[in-house]
């Protein structure tokens, strides 16, 4: 410490002496012209020097105080070493130092790890060591352990034991209420359900006791009942408080009425006045007590908060746990016989793994809910808006989910939950229970692999099963989020197909308005009407009607103006079509597109009819503010004014439906964009219609309203019921078949793939087989969809499209291109798979003959099996390389929101390097390294080869066939590596057998592994060298540079120091 103080004093004295030398500079003769001003300036500089000395002394005192604080901080430790002072920058840098490159300290390789030299990190490490018992006395460790036990005990007592005791009390109270049990049993089916629940809990308790489980289902039920009782108590207390508040409000109203009566004190008896005064005084005292009692306000606020928390928890518990779990249990019960299992087997499994059983049923239930919800919402957007848009509520953004849960009443939530449960139960019975009965009746379940599951647990089943279910749930969420619009497109194509067969397309699907056709005209005033415009059969009566209405409007316009319902207005126009003045020839028009998307005859949206005879003038405006305004668009009809010979007529046009509108629109379910107006979905309630919905033509009704015949209506009803039954039945069969194929086909493909790998039957794991099958089937489906889109006739045109593609093949004139194509096909689909299959069999399955597994007498299909295995493995590896599944970047982007975090970090690093030229020069070569020779990604070797062969096969363009990409970079290197890995171990094993070493599968496996390792090292020398240089650089920076401050070199600063 004394040395530090002496050094600081020495620096202070040197600075003061240097300042005095600068002050003693003589004044030159030519500077004596303004001696007075200069003397004043010198005197001011001297005063500034005195102030500088005082500032330096104050800085020295502050530095001494800081040093005393540091010494006091380190006195608690046993370390006698003083902290190293940070390096000082030069006091007076040279004038040109700003032009030198500035170096920033290097970023540490792990910025999240605290530095050991940081005082905060040191304190944290010391506290952690003391907590774990590595530092300090043994009594501190015992104290920490005791506090841990106290906290755990308090946690378990608060959230487990106390609710358990409460649940026991609630159960005891409810068990004594016999009328509750008798009332519940009186409901049909409830007694059977209660007996089943009681039997299930008893069996679960026995199984848990036999397995020595830590938690028993009965205890968990008691804890849940305790929480439910606590919630009931909170709700009851909150209701009492609200009831008291309402009584207080009613009393206040009574007091106000009494105050109104105070003005008539002379008319009131003396006793009534005294009673009123006493009541007012009592209420005033109660109000003063309430205002001066903050504890009461806090208690009321606490009860209200507890009631809100209980309400949110119960609603989330019912919607997110009870409802999916109930559906999962119902689905399991409906399909129990298909798996040849009983309810006792399910109870036995739950007794072994209660969490896994509950999680399994929850995942099944929530998956069913998601599929049904997505399908119903997509169907709402696919069919015409007049069918389901006003019945099914769309998915809306929930910016304040908790607020919505609290604002809506419990009865509203109960109705929604019961309605959802009814819909899900009905669909479960239609699509799950009925098909399961049919499969059992025809014994089809014996041929479906889903009902004969195979499992191979590498880990404990209690760990592996929840992990697999969690991964499946995440994959299902991602699948529905990405492909839910494809479900809607599939529904759209199916309804088009069925609608064309049953002639119901115009009644189910939306069409756009193509054009308008003129139906006729009607005059505005009755005096301009003809005899045919009135519905009377007697000419005398017609003349009387015209004479009576000669100064009034035509009756239809009065009826339309007085009616506000659009459907009734449409019926009025339809009933008066026969009275229109028919045009001499057919007239059509395309109309004008309004800014809201609706197709009109003109840019005007309303027609104003005259309100009096004095001003018989027809105007057209754009807003409905008076009763004499009539919209120009009424259902499928459009109105337009026309003036002929000083007579005003209104033309009535009818829309003509055009082509079908493709549904659902892209991005309609984006909750962050806006409502129906922006998303393009059908509007709900009072939402503003989107442009797409405004452009939809009016749906063709199921019944012809002009037909009044009872027989005709009966026939129409019968045809409608028949068509609806047919479309529902065929759709049910299609959905059932799609579910069976969608579940079992991946298992078939996965079992075949595992059979190609020659795994024993006891090693087959159905979840893995299902994932493998999905990986093989999805590309086929995507390719089929692209071919269907490319053809002009859907899937029917795919064979013709493929036939035209094959016929368009023309061989190239030169043989070089043909050799490239032939050699690449032979190597990739023939030789390389054979070598890879042989290598797989030799390493994993072992050899049984001197010819290393090729024994034609015992195994006639050995070569075919090796080729099949090699083909699958080679193409699987190529697919993984193309999509970069073998790189860390792919998984980082997947788990970090498509790499946004890493991208931002890269931008920040790039910005920092851009401001530092020297550092940018060091980092730039590493970032701009060419990816030539890489197998990963679309721009790698696999990607370039795929692009070359796809460009060639698309139009048989031989110029797109790249010899370097197909042979030199892809097929030949793979063939060389596989040939070395196969022939070198075989030759070495043959040589060892000649020497006298016994030939065995273990020796061959060691030789194959050594050969592959040596070949990899020899072919990856450049990569290994770069890795070594990078590791060496990191170690060097960690040893010499990280944490150090790099300063500019300055000769003056060096001389001064």
Lay out the secondary structure:
Elements: H1 2-23, H2 35-74, H3 119-132, H4 138-176, H5 178-185, H6 190-210, H7 217-261, H8 270-291, H9 294-334, H10 343-352, H11 354-382, H12 385-388, H13 401-407, H14 410-441, H15 461-502, H16 505-508, E1 511-523, H17 539-548, H18 555-562, H19 566-575, E2 588-589, E3 592-593, E4 599-600, E5 606-608, E6 619-621, E7 629-631, E8 633-634, E9 637-644, E10 647-660, H20 676-679, H21 691-694, H22 710-756, H23 766-790, H24 798-807, H25 815-845, H26 862-882, H27 888-895, H28 900-914, H29 917-927, H30 941-955, H31 963-995, H32 1001-1019, H33 1021-1040, H34 1051-1056
Antiparallel strand pairs: 1-2, 1-10, 3-4, 5-6, 5-7, 8-9, 9-10
Helix pairs in contact: 1-2, 4-7, 6-10, 7-9, 9-11, 9-14, 10-11, 11-15, 22-23, 25-26, 25-31, 25-32, 28-29, 30-31, 31-32
Brief summary:
The chain has 1057 residues and is mainly alpha-helical. It has 34 helices and ten strands. Helix 6 packs across helix 10 (343-352), helix 10 packs across helix 11 and helix 22 (710-756) packs across helix 23.
Task: Looking at this protein, list some descriptive labels.
1057 residues; mainly alpha; five-stranded antiparallel sheet; three-stranded antiparallel sheet; 34 helices; 10 strands
